[in-house]
Amino acid sequence: MGDIVISSAVRQNLSSLQTTADLLSRTNNRLSTGLKVGSPIDNPTSFFTAQGLTNRAADLSTLQDNIGLAVETLGAAAKGIDSLSTLVNQAKSTANSALNTKIKANDITSTKTFSAATAKLSAFANAASTEAITITVDGTATTITAKALTVSKFVSRLNGLTGVTAKLSGSALSVSATNGRKVTIASSGSGGSLATDLGFAAGSFDNGVNRDSFVTDYNNLLDQIDQLAKDASFNGVNLLDGNALTVKFNEDGSSKLDIAGVSFGSSGLGLADTTTTAFQGDAGINSVIASLDRATGTLRTQSSTFGNNLAVVENRSNFTNALIGVLEKGAGNLTLADTNVEGANLLALQTRQQLGTTALSLSNQGDQAVLSFIR
Fold first, then answer.
1. Domain boundaries, the chain
2. pLDDT tens, 262-302?
3. Paired strand residues for 131
């Protein structure tokens, strides 16, 4: 069977309709996908260039997630330093309270009177050569024998002891502890009770207000500092417990920020548990206060360092966000379709298709007229 022969007018109209149909298909595809370049066939250069830009934007988006985690890690460290500063201030307040608690030394007064300071102690002893008295202050015991001692010399011997004050006022003899602690008086030796002879009842005597309770409070605060420093972690990284942090800003890691961690437990801040001995005198408490002031300065300096690091990371985060937008916009300019243009194209092509169909119909009517003439 031979080829079907159609007139040139019909063939031209059919070709025009096919072209219009192809353009309609392409336009509909662009409107449905939103892309004018959806494959390398459409435009190889634009397609692969846009793909490279999109891939880099995706890589930066992944880095942006890590940068966000770094921001939160620095935030946790900053909050930790704020809380540590509060605890250090509480410890300083405790030390100041101890410093402001003045020791009140209550005298332990003899019940006997002494007519002369030069009177020998043996005059009041049952066996002058062997009787002795033991005085214990803050765990340190000292024994004094009555032999060959006068009342005034006995007072001098007591004043020579650390933390003990003795005085003979008129005929009254009294003893006290300068640090406000308890004084224990006991007789020793043989032949009688020198403590009784001197008018001091044996036993322990509370010598006034002391600062022991502040020591416990202070040491408890240092324990809280240690615990808080270990708890200031985020996503497994604790910048206050010696962990370091590296924040990468580009794909190959050539642009980054290394953030060194610190150990901000009590020892790292130069603080140590104190003792009741250290809090006995003002000098010991002032030394503790000085170490707390240094710790405050250390915290403030590190807070400034972390603040600068945070500013850098946030600035790079903002830059990365902006760069991702530029890359995505560039890829879009190469591949995205203009829906306004494509919509207008669709309307024009539909009109052209209708006109082409009409033209094809008219061409067919011409062929039919020739057939009628032959008949």
1. 58-100+213-328, 108-205
2. 999 999 999 999 887 788 778 888 999 999 999 999 999 99
3. 189
